[in-house]
Amino acid sequence: MHYETKIIEDPDEVVKEIARLTASSNELLTCITSGGMQYSYNHFFEIKKILLEKQKKGEHKGIRYVSSINTDNAKLARVFLDAGIQIRHVKNLPPMSFGVSDKEIAATIEKMEGGRMVQSLLLSNEPAYINHFYSIFQELWNKGIDAEDMISNIQEGTDLADIEIIRNPREGLERAWNYVKKSKHEVLAIFSTANAFRRQMQLGLLQLLKEATVERGVQVRILIPADKLINDTIEQAAKICPQVEFRIAEENLQTRITIVLIDKKDSMIIELRDDTKDSSYYAAGLTTYSNSKSIISSYASIFESLWKQNELYEQLKIHDKMQHEFINVAAHELRTPIQPIIGLTEMLRSQIKDIKQLELLEVTIRNAKRLMQLTNDILDVTKIEGKSLDLKKQEFNLNDVVINSMNDITLGRDFLKNENISLSYKPQDILIQADKGRITQVISNLLS
Q1: Collapsing DSSP states into helix, strand and coil, what is residue 166?
Q2: What pTM value is reported for the model?
Q3: N or C: which end of the chain has fewer CB within 10 A?
């Protein structure tokens, strides 16, 4: 068999050759533009009806089209479907229209808008060409959506959503940021981890965001899970992109996906495969694209909920800080007058002989000490919550601490009047390394 590849540049010859290829086929697969569908109908529809009759008799394997179905060509697509041609909708067609049979291929880069005549055609019966274009068609066919569904949605006034899985991480990431480049109104992003955001910074994401906000007035909001370096990262990013709103989410909100929503029309979901990798292309996995309104609105609702939750959390932290500062100041202000009260009343106790007056003074001293202990406890609580409590470790005799604590208790008149309570202990030296003041507090609380 003689193999030949040639280019035909006469429009009439192009029609003849395509008609011949079509008529001689045992199977016909066609990837075609909207204008190409009109061109096919104008010149080859009668031939294809003959092939479809042969298919009914089992003498032909059938005709399949992949094309982009829209409001302009939906009626024509319906004509082809009613005739028996199988059609699937593919949103992003390759730049070349082609037809492939079991014997030959014909291809052109012309759009054939409005059914315009093809001026130049590549024709070949080389097996390598046939196999190549056959595999391209099969890949498009497998990704396509049944034209019946697409036409029904067009007639009902709704668009059939596109969902595409991109297996190549590089392609997925590039597609995502290409959509950001084309954004007009809004970009929302939730990064899987802080590392994922830093990897994108290295690839030039911040420059894209800066161009979007400064040159096109796009509103950009980004949520990033916290880690140890997140504050420095956000500070660096904010210097480059001052008009972008960055917020730090709780570390437990780390996920395995990064979500990017563009103009509430397109969504890109990027899988995180390995967060330890330095390169995004090795860290990322599958990417899923969708323009489904329900999917995008769901993700947008999740984003807004997390954004508001983060805002409330920040307000809560500010309120909590103000509360701690108030308690801290109040406790210190209470301590200031209590100390001289205790000191002066203890001086008076040594000078007063009247028993009734001593009893009153003991009550004053005891309650002043309780108030002092309360202020110390409040200060300790604020220090613990603020993670600023320091322990002063020293060596001391635990026995002395216990004895002193018991002596403080036995000085209380209420204790002495209670005949059902008694204290007994065996003196014994117990040397420990600890914070003496805190141990004294614990023992006093336990004994009292």
Answers
A1: strand
A2: 0.53
A3: N
